[in-house]
Amino acid sequence: MTALTSALDIQGPDYRAHRETMLAKLADLDAEHTKALAGGGEKYVARHRARGKLLARERVELLLDPDTPFLELSPLAAWGSEYTVGASLVTGIGVVEGVECLITANDPTVRGGASNPWSLKKALRANDIALANRLPCISLVESGGADLPSQKEIFIPGGAVFRDLTRLSAAGIPTVAVVFGNSTAGGAYIPGMSDHAIMVKERAKVFLGGPPLVKMATGEESDDESLGGAEMHARVSGLADHFAADERDALRQARRVVARLNHRKAYRDPGPALPPKYDEEELLGIVPGDLRTPFDPREVIARIVDASDFDEFKPLYGTSLVTGWATLHGYPVGILANAQGVIFSAESQKAAQFIQLANQRDIPLLFLHNTTGYMVGKEYEQGGIIKHGAMMINAVANSKVPHLSVLLGASYGAGHYGMCGRAYDPRFLFAWPSAKSAVMGPQQLAGVLSIVARQSAAAKGHPYDDDADAALRAMVEQQIESESLPMFLSGRLYDDGVIDPRDTRTVLGLCLSAVHTAPFEGARGGFGVFRM
């Protein structure tokens, strides 16, 4: 066994300080998650319950197999915007009748479940995950369609939701719609384009135009039931494949549909795996509050991989990037983790070779971010940092094995790209509350703007206002700091969620299980030209 030996002093003052900082960040995170769980607030939750209806997450819970986890995705979508945290939609991965499924559920306590721009982005991200990992897609529908005041931001791109449903079906990935209430206008196409549709008696209302619109368009008088009720669609139009007596019956029928899908994983789940040698609780005290202070990512690896067993690749070369092989919940992974923040030429070349090896062996890659980016300066430019950094990014961009990313600390500049940031399509990307991501650090960015402004003033022969410069730097630093924080980035769906460090192994295990539902094969020399 090549088990890692921890040097973490869990009784030391540095560890205790880091832990306290992380716990404070987790408390803030819990408060924001509570807002998402609250949906539209007490008034609208009470109104919904008074109608005898289940809440969105209660529907999800009854759909899932008992005592199985639900990996909720993008719970902080819309954070910091004018829309409710969570974007009136619940998405995630859970097990139904032994089958891993991508589940979406409208939250009708938020403006009747109407879709706003962030709901749309969240739904499209969920569809991408379902398609990439071949996960059956179950839609728990209760929505009045588009949030009309924001229609200009929804209508044009919104058609991609219906496109995705047909593409999923065409790829042989089952789609199931369970309609609990309104599914009107564009929302009517969700059951209309799903492989299987279940509707709840006297509750489901599915029509392109409701009675008021029909009256305006044609002069015809109609009522909800005859126009789009569940019984009409079950007996007359044929849109409903299954007619449910109530919500619980609808969820029972959805489970039976999934049980009959004959949907199989491409790979068998591995057998039992040994847990790490070290306590996951200790993950709270590894990352410093000040990300300029380096930390050893091996301490993180030792607490998330099976038996803390890690075979390091090129341990004496390019030492600011740790690379190596491990298993996680029995699944083989190749790990790339930033050790000292900066990525030099040696690290870039080491990463490119390691990524090629993982593709030769068909092994998924896990990127653990803590980087300020690629090294700058005359010595490094002359040494070829651009072409070597490009080599690493080339390898990441053209790698064909699944990628998972976790932002532990800093993830700045092109280093974010080289470590498989969102633009490079990792199958899943999560962040710790300690993470920050931006073009560069706040102080560096403010300093660059200051230097440029000072040089411009000198070139024009103008005096430079140092007081105004100090005020500008402070303002820029504050703005960049706030825009670098994980909740801000998660609100814009630049990650799939901000997670408690102690949950990292579990979250990655669920992701790896989902990844192994779809077949994959590494690139065999299919990379761009490596500049030498």
Account of the 3D structure:
This protein is of the alpha/beta class and 532 residues long. It has 3 domains: 24-259, 2-enoyl-CoA Hydratase, Chain A, domain 1 (Alpha-Beta Complex), CATH 3.90.226.10; 280-435 and 498-515, 2-enoyl-CoA Hydratase, Chain A, domain 1, CATH 3.90.226; 440-484. Helix content is 42%, strand content 18%. It contains 19 helices and 17 strands. The chain has helices at residues 13-38, 42-50, 56-63, 117-133, 151-170, 189-193, 211-218, 224-228, 230-237, 247-259, 298-301, 345-361, 378-382, 385-398, 413-418, 442-460, 466-484, 486-491, 504-515; strands at residues 70-73, 89-96, 99-106, 137-143, 175-184, 196-200, 205-207, 242-244, 311-313, 321-328, 331-338, 342-343, 365-371, 373-374, 403-412, 428-431, 436-438. β5 (175-184), α6 and β6 (196-200) form a beta-alpha-beta unit. The chain is globular.
Question: What's a quick, concise take on this entry?
Answer:
With 532 residues, this protein is an alpha/beta fold. It folds into three domains: 24-259, 2-enoyl-CoA Hydratase, Chain A, domain 1 (Alpha-Beta Complex), CATH 3.90.226.10; 280-435 and 498-515, Alpha-Beta Complex (2-enoyl-CoA Hydratase, Chain A, domain 1); 440-484. The protein has 19 helices and 17 strands.
